[in-house]
Amino acid sequence: MMKKSVMKEVSSAQAFAAFHPEHAVFVLSVDRQGKPNGMAAAWNMKCSEEPPMIAVAVEKGANTHKLISESREFVIAVPNKALEKGLLFFGSSRGSEVDKFGETGIRTMKARHTKTPLLADATINFECVLRNAVDAGDCTLFIGRVVASYANKGKRVLMYRGRIGGKRVFEEF
Ligand SMILES: Cc1cc2nc3c(=O)[nH]c(=O)nc-3n(C[C@H](O)[C@H](O)[C@H](O)COP(=O)(O)O)c2cc1C
């Protein structure tokens, strides 16, 4: 028998927490010396097919926010299971304090148009040039024009299921 559902009002934080799974990706960019760093971001979306565009919401205090604002470019790298630990590290440490690539040993690859590298072992990489930065509360919505895309057909996509029992849980599809 189908379970009876009861819709009731909850806080926006509870509703956001229930809104899973999400695509958690790497958002990468470079500093003025061309040194790459980045973070994990689950608040991202495709937003135009022609021209191709992707948007990502980045917290204003994040080091990645500074890198994208200054370099006006970023790479979205879609992870698989093998990159789960790296994604968690990128999502829980500050690029202003650590060299995340140095710490994790995640392999990079030169991009075609941007100084920001691609992730060699990701499932998909999108090379983006910043088209627009929209103020959105505690985040800025960075909208990027995709200037090159790459896919590793043999690999699957890691999704973020949220915090379950206090632990961040991921699953590959
Ligand atoms: C699974 C996951 C998803 C995340 N999604 C976002 C997001 O969409 N936007 C955001 O601003 N921060 C997000 N974060 C938090 C940032 O990745 C985190 O604050 C990071 O340490 C920022 O690094 P930075 O200061 O080097 O840029 C997420 C973290 C995790 C683990």
CATH topology: Pnp Oxidase, Chain A
Query: What is the terminal separation in angstroms?
Result: 28 Å
Instruction: Please tell me the CATH architecture by its name.
Output: Roll
- Text of the CATH class: Mainly Beta
Average of the residue pLDDT scores: 97
Q: What fraction strand?
A: 35-45%
Given helix and strand content, the structural type is alpha+beta
Total domain modules: 1
Please write the string of helix (H) and strand (E) elements: HEEEEHEHHEEEEEE
* Sheet of most strands: 7 strands, antiparallel
Output the CATH homologous superfamily. Electron Transport, Fmn-binding Protein, Chain A
Radius of gyration: 17 Å
Question: How many helical elements?
Answer: 4
Query: Strand arrangement, largest sheet?
Result: 2-1-5-8-9-4-3
Number of strands: 11
Percent helix, as a range, is 10-25%
Small molecules bound in the structure, each named once: flavin mononucleotide
Low-confidence parts, pLDDT < 50 over ≥5 residues?
A: none
Judging from the principal axes of the Cα atoms, what is the shape? globular
Question: What's the SSE blueprint?
Answer:
Blueprint (H helix, E strand, L loop, with lengths): L11 H7 L6 E6 L5 E6 L2 E5 L4 E7 L3 H9 L1 E6 L5 H7 L9 H5 L3 E2 L8 E2 L4 E13 L2 E13 L6 E7 L2 E6 L1
Antiparallel strand pairs: 1-2, 1-5, 3-4, 4-9, 5-8, 6-7, 8-9, 10-11
The structure holds flavin mononucleotide.
